[in-house]
C-alpha cells in the first residue's frame, strides 16, 4: 500500500504516529493510553512508515527506530534495545514504554493525586505486573515459562489457548488476507485505520477496567485487609484465619504482600467473610490459594466434607448450620459466623 496514502484521523494540532499495516496489541494500547491525557485528548493519528511524515508527529510509538522520551519517541525494535520496567525482566514494547513514562500521570489523574504520591506508585507497579507486562512479553515473543525447561520436563499442553489473549483478539481485528480492499489508496488506508481504532478502543476498555479496579476497588481494600490481618490472632493463636467483619473485599494480593513483609512461616489458611453486608447474611470459608492465580489451596477443606450440603454436612462435620462445601474443597459456607469459624477451626486440625 502506498505510503503517501497514510490517513490522518481526526484533525488536531497534536499528532501520534504509529506504523500502518498489520497492527498489534502494544501500539493499539499505547495510542489509547496517550489519549487519556489532556495533551493527546483530541490528537490525530498518523499511521505510516514514512520517516518524513513521522518526523512531523508530536509523538511516535512502535515505529521509527528510536527510543527517546525527551522527544516522545517510543519504539522498541532497535537491535540494541533492552529496556525493562523497574525491577522486572521483560523487555518493553511500545505499550510498556508509554506506560513506564506516562502511566503515573494517567493514574494520578484518575486518583486526583500528585504523581509522586505513594498510592500512585503502588498502582503503577501493580498494573504493570498484572496487565502491561503480558502485552510486552507477547509482542517481544517471550513465553511465560521457559520453553526449554518445559520440554525437559516432558510437559505437554492439554488444549490450545492461543486465541485466549488480548494479543490474539487484536490480531483477529486485522483485515483478513482475502478481504476486499478499496482500489483507491486513501480509502484503503482509511479502512485499515478504522479497524486499528476498533482495536485501540478494545484494548483501552480492558486497560480502563483494570485502572478502575485498582484505583476504586483494590486500593481501598488494602486498609481493610491490613486491619483484618492485624486482628488475625484473635481468631486463631497461630494467625491461620483471616476474618472480614463487614463484607469481603479483594484480599489475595494484599494478604500475600503482608505475609511477605511479615516474614513469618505461619500462613493464613482460611478467609471468612459474609456473603452480603447484612446482619443475617450467611458466611463463607475460602481456602487461601498457594498463589494468587493457583487452583491449588494451601489447605483445602476436609475431603470428607466435600460435595455435601445442609443437614448431611452438619452430620459429617459436627458443626450445625452448614450450607455447603464445594467438591473441590476450596470454599464452603455456614448460616452464621460462629458456625463458619467452628468449621474453619475444625478443618485446621484435620489432616
Could you describe the 3D structure shown?
With 351 residues, the protein is of the alpha/beta class. 42% of the residues lie in helices and 11% in strands. It contains 10 helices and 11 strands. The chain has helices at residues 25-34, 51-55, 94-111, 118-140, 147-153, 166-173, 185-230, 252-262, 310-317, 337-348; strands at 8-9, 15-18, 44-47, 59-61, 67-68, 73-74, 241-243, 270-274, 283-287, 322-325, 331-334. Strands 1-3-2-4-6-5 form a 6-stranded mixed β-sheet. It has a 5-stranded mixed β-sheet with strand order 7-8-9-11-10. Helix 1 (25-34) links the parallel strand 2 (15-18) and strand 3. The longest helix has 46 residues, at 185-230. Mean pLDDT is 93; it is low at 1-11.
Q: What key phrases describe this protein's structure?
A:
about 350 residues; alpha/beta; six-stranded mixed β-sheet; five-stranded mixed β-sheet; 10 helices; 11 strands; elongated; disordered N terminus
